Records
---
Amino acid sequence: MNNGDVFCILATGSRHHEDAGLIGESLYEVIAGTGARNIVIRHGACPGGADQIFQEFCESEAAWFDREGRSLIVDPVPADWDFCGPDCPPRRHRVRKKPGDVFHPGVLDDYCPGAGPRRNLAMVEKLPRPDVAVGFPLGRSSGTENCLRAAKAAGIPVRRFTTRARRGGDAA
């Protein structure tokens, strides 16, 4: 079930998520069931939304884990929105950034829409291998759903947490 004394959680969620209570409670629910001394929380490093809440959770709770003789390790995996990969179509496919766009950081005025799915796959494949993927979708949440599908395809158990099902995330 886990990688020995390390339990890796792949955490993904909407860039518009604001429910830190739901996310914190849900992460603690998943962590409580592991028994592992070292917890890794891997997220997509998107500014704002769920990724920012994952980051803040790790920063605020790390001292408590340390006092308990455990460790909470944050593992952000940002997308490279400036880069087009070999999987990109040969025709023009880049998207111009809207004024004030903070969700696609980079130096260029446009971004590659394939960067998010490439980052999601990298989070699934990176070692230590995730023991579980937890998702916090809002509405359509196409990036969150893409990440959860990639995790499920890799044989990683998936749990979704929504504001309607605040306790006991739904297994997917």
---
Amino acid sequence: MKKLPLHEIASRSEELDKCVTCGLCQSVCPTFIADGHEGKTARGKIILLRGLLDGSLSPTSSIADIFDDCLTCYACQTVCPAGVKTERLWTSARFDLAEKSSSTRKKRIGLRWTIGKPALFNILVRIAGKFGFDPDKPESVNLHNRIVLPFKGAPLLDSLEEEYLPEGSPVGTVAMLVGCSGNLFAPNVVKSSIRLLTAFGWRVIIPKDQVCCGAPAINNQDWKTARKLALKNMDVFLSLDVDRVTSPDATCTGAIMKDYKEIFRSDEIVLSHLKKLASKTAQLSEVLGNYKTDIKPAFRVFKSRVTLHDSCHSTHLTGGSGWRKLLNKIEGLEIIEMQESDHCCGFGGSYSLFHRETAMKIADRKLSNSVKTGAELVLVGSPGCLIWLNSAKKLVPSGNLKIQHVSELISNAIC
């Protein structure tokens, strides 16, 4: 049997040594909660990695598939009392075990012929966009269909201006990474985010030569494509004279702030540039809520009962979300916290395509917790969560519950 090199895993052995196998990760692991498989918890995966490194276990497709069956939500990292940085482990393990994964080949081919070739991908999107769904009816997107088309007129980036100005003098300039989910499936999320930023006094720059953040490639072992995309975005955004970089999608900001540094950690020259970019990058809610400015948009009375789903990347990878602080400024809005608001919804990008049954169990739990609050509206901070939960809602009982990106509600509430 050909011996599989485990260089990435070995370089992270210090993280494996931190784990005390307490099992607290069970309480937050979405796949464990869904099917009770101990091997899928952080503790279980770390035991497997230790076995691979000491030679007591051999790399097999079954072990590779356990790491593939992970949403990379990083809730385990947040709850870990020993401080294990699982963000450094799971992508490394997937990379080393890629040859044994049953789905890696399909994913790599798909990624390299889509996000890996932006010019070709945009041509295909423009063709598909002639037959897509009405952008004013985002709930019509169904990820359960065999073929999922973008909205009519996609990609959104083609129709956006390169600059949006606030009324009066800008408090600063922010560049926006639109993100693939918004660019193809949730255009109103991007538009409402731009309106919000300008209402808070920001000058908004939309660089037209931006590309996918690379998160799908990072999470699916295609680091060659991921590095190419990261370098392109680094060149694009560092060439701009801006105070901040943000995105309506927490996954994209998470990629810049955390993931890029992981896939380039052995390249000091690239890392020095990435650190500059990461230092300017923040979640959209943080840009709106924490920047020192006297501009405070007036909100109209907006009577509604809402609950929030906190996206994984904003909660566990980049230090939390500031949406509640903004929502509390809206008179008439009643926020009812759901149980497990910071638990994953089951989307996980390609996870919901390759692990549909488990993803639906997780989505069912999220929607059930939402319904129990009695809220009329579930607010989410990621376009991916929005698309996935709207799709899942078609298959599980959820009453008249509606789902909306939080930027859309706040934008609509501004006088």
